[in-house]
């Protein structure tokens, strides 16, 4: 039996995920045809299925789309060559990359242009790592652990960049060992681990003294969800990643638990889990309040404005009811509302 659920804040959607979900929702409102999305828009099974049921097809390669298709590129970032291939084949490609991932792409390009070799800490095969490494494939070296750093053979200057969603507990040892191995290692002033990743991890560390175990809501392929689990386990506390209420049947938990969610998991799932757990008490555990906001991709904003003004001219603005609620007041329109509007 669960006594207390410590409901941790911040949890769930970050500003990048909010933006990407709203961007894809807008695409569905503007265009009647199927929208092809490169990679899962965000790594959450429930959200992916929601979009699949609303005429979005997720693809892994430009060859998977028909000529003239309308395309969206996911929040995880796309390599320049893949983006060009989509541009060549599509009638329109909108890039919903998170600006914090773009920052890493810019760093990779800047170091490459200076002739500095880039060590990239990330997970092999993860969408974000694939996109970042594609910025400069010949000049970037993927490392996943300290052993990989030891095997590196780099002449000249080196720089260290990272996937935004790593666990602090996996990033720090790799950073230390890289600093030891490469004198004058270049690094961005601030680590590439994003604010949402570090806030969620600090919050869960903060709550640990109060609880017997931790539930992390999120999908198997969500890197920041797995990072939360790793972070808790590194403190010898039991952590379970769960997709939804079905997964509760597979585990045995009691006492006091902390409940959090990866950056791509909707709060709808979190509250379903609380209902199922039926705790004696719910404690709101606020570590930090987040108010980051990322605007929709510029090309999308321009398209929506154009269509909205066109409809106004023809007195058809009632056909586009989200006009005032969405694009002109986007900051106050949540990804949850966008998903509910589909
Ligand atoms: S987890 Fe961080 S980098 Fe990834 S989408 Fe969210 S804010 Fe952007």
Task: Please explain how this structure is put together.
The protein has 342 residues and is an alpha/beta fold. Among the domains are: 2-13 and 195-286, 3-Layer(aba) Sandwich (Cobalt-precorrin-4 Transmethylase, domain 1), CATH 3.40.1010; 100-181, 4-hydroxy-3-methylbut-2-enyl diphosphate reductase, catalytic domain (Cobalt-precorrin-4 Transmethylase, domain 1, 3-Layer(aba) Sandwich), CATH 3.40.1010. The protein is built from 13 helices and twelve strands. The strands form three sheets. The protein has a five-stranded parallel sheet with strand order 10-9-11-1-12, with helices on both faces. Helix 5 (127-133) links the parallel strand 6 (117-121) and strand 7 (140-143). It is globular, with a radius of gyration of 21 Å. The mean pLDDT is 92. It binds iron/sulfur cluster (SF4). Residues 14-17, 75, 98, 100-101, 164-165, 194, 196-197, 224, 263 line the site of iron/sulfur cluster (SF4).
Secondary structure layout:
Elements: E1 2-9, H1 15-30, E2 35-38, H2 45-52, E3 56-59, E4 70-73, H3 80-89, E5 92-95, H4 99-113, E6 117-121, H5 127-133, E7 140-143, H6 146-151, E8 158-162, H7 168-181, H8 195-207, E9 213-217, H9 223-233, E10 238-242, E11 255-261, H10 267-277, E12 281-286, H11 298-313, H12 322-325, H13 335-340
Parallel strand pairs: 1-11, 1-12, 2-3, 2-4, 4-5, 6-7, 6-8, 9-10, 9-11
Helix pairs in contact: 1-11, 4-5, 8-9
The structure holds iron/sulfur cluster.
Iron/sulfur cluster binds near residues 15, 194 and 263.
